[in-house]
Each structure stands twice: as structure tokens, then as C-alpha cells.
Specification:
This protein is about 30% helix and about 20% strand. The protein is of the alpha+beta class and about 300 residues long. The protein is globular. About 30% of the residues are buried. The N terminus is likely disordered.
Length: about 300
């Protein structure tokens, strides 16, 4: 029977304030001394307001924390490295699914900003959510902040931010890819396939991800038949029409092939100009600290992850 998900018992504002302070200390490498299990238990409680159950994990977020601690498949280090994973994609589904590469660099100071096109996507290969989507002029205060942020990202070790084991020891590099242009000239929809034991089950669709500095970011959930699910996760739902992707069946097949042999993975894909492109592979959606509404959906996702000794 799925574990009952109860509401937090004390003020979320106080918890989130402490959670943000905790993460700030972790980013500055002031919590490296805290053992992984204790670190995750504290971080989990501060974010979600409930204790982390690891002896008999049942909820989706609990199982992701268990995987962080106890699943040590060396392939994971390849899959989270945004340069190394390109070889896996090329060998598994084909070169045509890779976003064309513009450049790669080993250090932030090596980036030849003036030689880059007006529009591109720059990614740090060793972390998560460390992207610069450049659309326009290479000047101004915003661009200066982006360059400063890149310097800091290249110093960060993502393992210490949420103890996601696959990131430990991944070499920091920079990948610059072609800007994928959606129908309106903006960043296209981001289709995130939640896969379990090599089978896609749900699709998260991120809309207007970079609009208004990220404040316009909207998110919907769909099943494989493109039936919208009444599920909310971090971002507000998108009320406008989201048409069934022309390449939906192809995307499902790509996600299925890329996720083979993995108990759980998120495969991010794009559809542009009638073609499917690979974005990234993510083991821990939202660091395993995501709030889902309704709360029963988190329990449902947990049932789809089969840990050792469990039947899915």
C-alpha cells in the first residue's frame, strides 16, 4: 500500500528560509563535512516538511534520495556529463538527434564570446540548471551577470549541493550548442519524459521557460496519449493550448531506447521543424525535493520505481 502523504506540520515560510540558507552553505562548500545521509535528511525535511524514510522508501522523492545514496552505476557519470552523453546518444539513437555543436571549452576564460553567433545555448557539462540561453546582443548588464555566473558555475561541484552521486568527479567543461528556435522564434517547448525501467510513462511539458527571466515558466503534465493530467509541480500550469506534438511517437521511441536498463531517468527532448532533438538525461527530477499536487501523484510515481527487492 502506498505511503500516506501528509501535509507539513509547521510553517513552510520558516522552513524554506532555512532551506535556502542550508543550500547557500552547501554551495559555499561549508557543509562538506556532513555525512551524505544526514545531509539529505536535513535538506529533505527543510524543503518538504516531513522526515525522510530510507529504510522502506515508498514516495517518489524518497526513492530518489535512496538512489542517490545506494545506487552506484558508473554509467550514470556518463549520462549526466553533457558532453560525454552525446556519444551515448549518437550510438544509441543516432547523430540526427543531437543539437549541432558550435564550440566547447575547458575554462570560462577560454570562451570566445565575440566568435559566437547572436543566438546560442551554452551549458556547463558538469551540473544542472547552469545554462545560458543567449538571444541577441552580447552586451549590457545582463550579459555581464551571465559571464560572472559562468565563472562561478565552473567552480561549483554539483555533488555537494544535493549529494547527487553521479556528479561527483565530473570534469567541468563548457558546451555551446545551436539555438533551437520554436515556431514563435523563442525557445521551443521542453518535453521531459519520465521513464521507469526503460518505459516512458509521463511527459512534463515546460512552456516559456526563459520568459520574463524565468518568471513566465509554466508546466503541464501529460500521459503518453496526450491526455493532460491535473498535476502541478513547482511551476504554475499553462492555460493555453498545447497541441499534441507532431513527433510524439518518435519522441516516445527515443526516450524508450535511451532509458533502457535504468530504473528511473528523465529524458528531455525538443521538437523543432518536424525533427526531434535530445536535451539531457536527469536522474533526480528537482533533486528529489519536488512538491507535487495532488500529493497522491508523488506516491503513484514512487510505485513506478522498483528498488532492489521490490516488484513494480
Amino acid at each position: 500500500m502506498a505511503q500516506t502523504v501528509t501535509e507539513p506540520t509547521w510553517g513552510w515560510q520558516a522552513r524554506i528560509a532555512l532551506y535556502n540558507k542550508w543550500n547557500g552553505l552547501a554551495r559555499r562548500r561549508m557543509l562538506d563535512w556532513v555525512p551524505d545521509r544526514a545531509f539529505l535528511g536535513i535538506q529533505y525535511f527543510l524543503k518538504l516538511g516531513r522526515p525522510l524514510h530510507l529504510k522502506h522508501p515508498a514516495l517518489y522523492n524518497e526513492k530518489l534520495q535512496w538512489i542517490k545514496l545506494y545506487d552506484r552505476d558508473e554509467r550514470y557519470k556518463v549520462f549526466v556529463d553533457k558532453l560525454a552523453v552525446r556519444d551515448y546518444v549518437r550510438e544509441t539513437v543516432g547523430e540526427q538527434y543531437l543539437i549541432p555543436e558550435i564550440a566547447r571549452y575547458d575554462r570560462a576564460q577560454d570562451v570566445q564570446w565575440d566568435s559566437l553567433p547572436p543566438r546560442y545555448a551554452l551549458k556547463c557539462t558538469h551540473g544542472s540548471s547552469c545554462n545560458i540561453v543567449q538571444d541577441g546582443s552580447l552586451s549590457g548588464e545582463r550579459f555581464a551577470r551571465q559571464k560572472a555566473r559562468l565563472v562561478q558555475w565552473m567552480k561549483d561541484d554539483w555533488f555537494y549541493l544535493s549529494r547527487e552521486w553521479p556528479y561527483r568527479g565530473v570534469k567541468p567543461r563548457i558546451l555551446v550548442e545551436q539555438f533551437l528556435e520554436g515556431p514563435d522564434g523563442q525557445v521551443p517547448y521542453d518535453y521531459k519524459f519520465l521513464c521507469f525501467d526503460g518505459e516512458p510513462k509521463y511527459i512534463i511539458v515546460d512552456v516559456d521557460r526563459y520568459k520574463d527571466g524565468g518568471d513566465g515558466h509554466r508546466r503541464n503534465f501529460y500521459d503518453l496519449n496526450w491526455v493532460k493530467q491535473e498535476v502541478f509541480n513547482r511551476h504554475p500550469g499553462y492555460d493555453g493550448p498545447v497541441e499534441r506534438p507532431q513527433c510524439l511517437e518518435e519522441m516516445i521511441q527515443v526516450a524508450r531506447k535511451l532509458s533502457q536498463g535504468l530504473r528511473h531517468i528523465r529524458i528531455d527532448l525538443y521538437q523543432v521543424g518536424g525533427r526531434v532533438y535530445f536535451g539531457e538525461m536527469t536522474f533526480f527530477h528537482g533533486c528529489g525535493l519536488e512538491v507535487f499536487r495532488p500529493r497522491a501523484f508523488e506516491a503513484h510515481l514512487g510505485e513506478l520505481i522498483a528498488l532492489p527487492g521490490e516488484a513494480r
